[in-house]
Amino acid sequence: MTPKLNTDLLAERMIISYNKCMTQLFIIHFLGSMEIFILTGMAYDRYVAICKPLHYAAIMSRQRCNTIILACWTGGFIHSASQFLLTIFLPFCGPNEIDHYVCNVYPLLKLACTDTSRIGLLVIVNSRLTALVIFVILMVSYFLILYTIRVYPAESHAKALSTCRFHITLVVLFFVPVLFVYIRPHVTFPVDKVFALLHAIIAPVFNPLIYRLRNWEMKALREMWCHLVIL
Length: 231
Fold this sequence. Notes:
Elements: H1 2-10, H2 18-51, H3 56-59, H4 62-88, H5 105-111, H6 117-149, H7 154-182, H8 192-212, H9 216-230
């Protein structure tokens, strides 16, 4: 999505072929839904680490981690394949211009020269259920974490919250635009492009930065740079 967007910004005519459009649709939903499932797996990891610290090594074994990763890939593929199959068989015989910078389901439904009300309903159910169920699971996991740490000493309480705040930041950055775009009925608004930019480009760009800031290598690097600046 990002290379094509950068290319279109420099081009006089913004064109994408049908095959590339369908490929972009599949990949965006595959990676986006996989990101949602990964955030869920990370929430489970944080829950076990904070609520059951003595059993963490036994519960989050290498086999369990591999199973979670495989489930994220499988869930992403199933969701993306369903969105892809609902769209690829639509007949496009009229206008061929979408009011978006990415091939997504809702803009493509507007171009189809057939009644898309049933397909739009299936897309809503698919995306809405995925987003809502995962969001509820994330909220429940953090409610359990907050409920557990309420009896912790102040230092342990602050450490537990520090462990979660980066994950919560990414959940907010990712889920707020996703819920806005996919929870409502299948209509499009101009602001959709802004929200698509947030969850498809901005949030992934911040991923490595946010998670690396806690690593001891990055902390050591920051201390070194501060020392050099003082010198």
